[in-house]
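Today's session is about reading a structure prediction critically. Students often jump straight to the picture, but the first step is always the sequence itself: look for stretches that repeat, for charged clusters, for runs of hydrophobic residues. Only then move on to the predicted structure, which in these notes is written as discrete structure tokens rather than atom positions. Here is the chain we will use throughout the hour.
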Amino acid sequence: MPTVDQEQELSKARRFLKERLQRDYTTIRGYEAERSNVRELLQRTGEGESNSLLLIGPRNAGKTTLINAVLADLLVNKSFVENTLIVHLDGNLHTDDRIALKSITVQMRLENAADGKVFGSFAENLAFLLQCLKAGNKKSKSVVFILEEFDLFCTHHNQTLLYNLFDVSQSAQAPICVLGVTCRLDVIELLEKRVKSRFSHRQVFLFPNADKFEDYVKLCQELLSIPSDKELRSTASRIDSLELLKSDAFTFQRNHFRGAAYDFDKRFVDNWNKHHDKLIKMPAAQKTLQMLYDFDISEAFLKNYLLRLVCKLKPNTPHITVEQMSLLAQQYESDDKIELLCGLSVLELCIIIAMKHHSEIYDRDPFNFEIIFSRFSKFAKVSSTMQGVERSVVLKAFEHLRISELIMPLSSNSGLGKVQKEFEMHKMALTYGQIQQAVQRYQALPTEIAQWAQSSLI
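Below is the predicted structure for this chain, in token form.
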């Protein structure tokens, strides 16, 4: 039985790892060239230069984390902190220009200055807000606008927000930097001509970064390890600067690294790290990680997988095991449609096989019940298992496959007059590989049916 102290240490380890896997908003690995590009752009903005840039890549590639990492580096610089404001906008939240302008006013802390001021257009409102940042003869503060889900801002009426932001950045009315974050590669095509002409056309592309399997294994090892007190304090010091952003995300992370994570027992940390270093090097664990690597190489996917393993830790199972890794990985491999096929009756599986043969012979032409029943009947005549099955029973099984969405009707009958269900055209919502795997895994499937699945010849 584990002692009370051991249970407490395990509880802290779980909390620490869960926080790091879920809420690490500033650690970016790789992307050195892209990171340098964004950092240089923001540094020039802090010095009074205006810019615009689009950060493009698939979801979970690390676009927002890269921006946060660059800000964490720059906010150590006192001059940058004093002369720069950060404004976050999200296309999912700020669905029109009025909401966006209100959020800009709040984040620039100009609610009092804007109170009672009424202007005719978005451009006049934005110009007034930027003018408020100037004090006496001093230069205006720089503003960094970070637009998450940038493509959604392209749907706003006349793209007024984007037009005015890009216009200000191009005309040097005030030093601003517009950073757009999107997963759409064709986002430039969504911009209106007048907006596109004011955009700098700087684009940075981010794609999953694990080029080698060895790097993927090292990342897994790093994410599972508990760092020393010195490393924790160094991270906490770096994140303290992010408090200036007044962002909830960074508040979570700052509190996490300032909290109980400091008082880990050294023996527990050494034992934990040694065990999991040894675990990762085991052949079975390497095989599991190779499967995950082939499935999805992104860091976000690996973090999600490790988080589910960490959540399974209990006092009686204080360490991750190879068996846990393998069982969890199998869930990612499983195909829901194959599981569904394995739960069908033998008759329903025979109908699926008949559909497969029809699709192979006629290059995936659509089919109706009569076509499939005719093919099934030829097999049933020479089959000891399926002989004597009535037409009405086969029709009912066919309808069940439709309800299960394993086959899909080509169109509804509305407006076309009534079509008898036996003659309604369908297409198969399965691949040949899924059907083949289901036949191989089906429990106690008669040999003649398994052989028929291999060849359409009767």
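Discussion point for the tutorial: Residues 241-261 have pLDDT under 50 and may be disordered.
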